[in-house]
Amino acid sequence: MEGARQGEVSAASLQMGDDTIAIRRIATMSVERHEFAPWDTPRNRKTQSVYATLCVSLLFFGLLGLGWWALRPAQGDGVIGLFAGIGMLFLGVLLGIRAAMIAVMLKKREPYYRLLIGTSDARQIPLVDNNRDVLVKIRDVVRHKMDTGDTTITGDFDLNLDVVNLRLPKGAGLGAAAPTKPEPAQEDDVFEGPRITF
Questions:
Q1: Where are the transmembrane segments (predicted)?
Q2: CA distance 21 to 27
Q3: If both were cysteines, with which of 38, 69, 73, 196 could 82 make a disulfide (CB 3.0 to 4.6 Å apart)?
Q4: Listed residue (39, 190, 188) closest to 110, CA to CA
């Protein structure tokens, strides 16, 4: 996945990998939904192609074996053709089922989400994860700091563990940045800011 996997929210900046962004320089934030096919790789496509080719070949030679037995049912080579044909047909069917299963997996698509942070100097820094709630929480923390100018809220996050740790001063609350119920999934949840003047 693109973007940093760990980061830190300090008093006035957001650290993500090698990128440090001043909170007051953030212009836009959006949580976007995308899809990808995790099984659609060159190796899996080649494996599916090999299985399909072997399936067709084994079915063809299996039918030839049965045909040979039909021509010479009482001969020894005809009996060998019968058993060989049945074996190849059985194996060909198994490989065909496996090829069909891989073909279905190649078309399977899964969602992922991107928190895209745009800055006033035209940079765009992505955070990508398959857990939308974690990205929304990071966005809401940054939005709260932008709206209120609050420098007391700090913390860190780890997208590999789906964890956002916040350090709040005693008696402080995050307000809108920590909703008690998860937000409904949306195709494109955009916040444009800042809403305060400096």
A1: 50-71, 83-106
A2: 11
A3: 69
A4: 39
Distance of CA 110 to the CA centre of its chain: 6
Q: 155 near 185, Cβ under 8 Å?
A: no
pTM more than 0.85: no
Average pLDDT for 139-160: 81
Residue % of the chain over a pLDDT of 70: 82
Listing DSSP states for the chain in one string gives --B-SEEEE-SSEEEETTEEEEGGGEEEEEEEEEEE-TT--HHHHHHHHHHHHHHHHHHHHHHHHHHHHHHSTTSHHHHHHHHHHHHHHHHHHHHHHHHHHHHHHHH--EEEEEEEEEETTS-EEEEEES-HHHHHHHHHHHHHHHHH---S-EEEEETTTTEEEEE--TT---GGGS-SSPPPP-SEEEEE---S--
- Structure tokens given for 164: 């956002």
**Contacts (Cβ under 8 Å, ≥6 apart) of 94:** none
Sheet of 163-167: strands edge to edge? 19-22, 13-16, 6-9, 154-158, 163-167
Q: Name the residue among 121, 113, 120, 161 with its Cα closest to residue 139.
A: 113
Which residue shows structure tokens 């496996």? 98
Given a cut of 70, whether residue 23 has pLDDT beyond it is yes
Counting every residue written for the chain, the total comes to 198
